[in-house]
Amino acid sequence: MASEDEDLRRFKFKWTLPRFIVQLLSLLAVNALAFTLIYPYLDLRAVPFGLPILASINSPSTAVYSSLDLLQLELSQPEFPWIVLGAIFLIGAVVGRAFCGWVCPIGFIQDIITTLKGRLDFISPRAHKSGRKFKYLVLFSTLLISGTLGLALYLGVGSDYKAALGPFASGPFIAISPDGTLFATVPTLIKMARENFADFIAHPPTLQDIWGQLNQIPPLLALRVVILVGFFAAAWKVPRFWCRYACPTGALMAVFQKYSLAGIKRDPVKCTKCPHCEVRCPMQINILDLPWEKFNDPECIMCMECVDACPHGSLSPKFP
Fold first, then answer.
1. What is the largest CA-CA distance in the chain?
2. Does the pLDDT value for residue 3 go beyond 70?
3. Please, are residues 179 and 59 in contact by the beta-carbon 8 Å criterion?
4. Predicted model pTM
5. Closest C-alpha to 164, from 176, 173, 152, 155
6. CA end-to-end span of the chain, whole Å?
7. DSSP letter string, 178-199
8. How many Å apart are CA 193 and CA 195, to the nearest integer?
9. For position 8, what pLDDT does the model report?
10. Mean pLDDT score of the chain, rounded to an integer?
11. What residues have CB less than 8 Å from 224, skipping those under 6 apart?
12. From CA 107, how far away is CA 110, in angstroms rounded?
């Protein structure tokens, strides 16, 4: 009997490879307009529809935009984002935060970094519990600024407010999001460096020239670069750091995750309360403390790492 159980566990369905394939295809699909740079004859255009992922509206390669970006942009016009909110409610009610674990390019990049590192490092439970609240603060600040601006413009008294916000008027988070910097700002900087490389070699700048150029860097650009560097450093240190503690889109979808149709169940007969599932979870969720019938923890991104990690096959997806 023991040997038969081992064979069943050996051949049980694994989610790691399918999820990697979906994440890779999603990365290519979300940034599909980049292919037009290689194949100009391709007639590809951005789809004016939002998904609960990080896909900057400022990136020239983005084919599908972030729901939060569209929400901010529409409020700044001002228009009420009926379609965007409807999509968020529908996706959230059905699959919760699954788009974070399966579709989001920024989430995929973090998973790649963790894979290259080769291990999962976790922070103290107290710091983790406190840190999770920060993304809700980012979401609240974003919606507060965009919402009050939209209301002021609708009432006809928001022109000065919009002018004062400057580059943050179209969306406070759009202006600083790491996806926009990675897929829009960084390629632009690389292109500029390539175009000026020959002149740089022919006439090497002095330290005074370099210092002068650095002083001309706009503060917002410097902030975006700092945030992007911090994103990579934090992702190396803690798995899914951005998703856990900083992502406002993740915070928005976490509200729906608790009540979504998709969830995970734990068989109390097979479960031996071993720690394998919790050790494997990139979001550091205390799985064994959750209800066994079905759990929809707000931090769960439905990555199925816990399901693959369980040596007894006690965990499985449940819908509804």
1. 77
2. no
3. yes
4. 0.90
5. 152
6. 32
7. HHHIIIIIHHHHHHHHHHTHHH
8. 5
9. 46
10. 90
11. 175, 176, 178, 180, 181, 185
12. 5
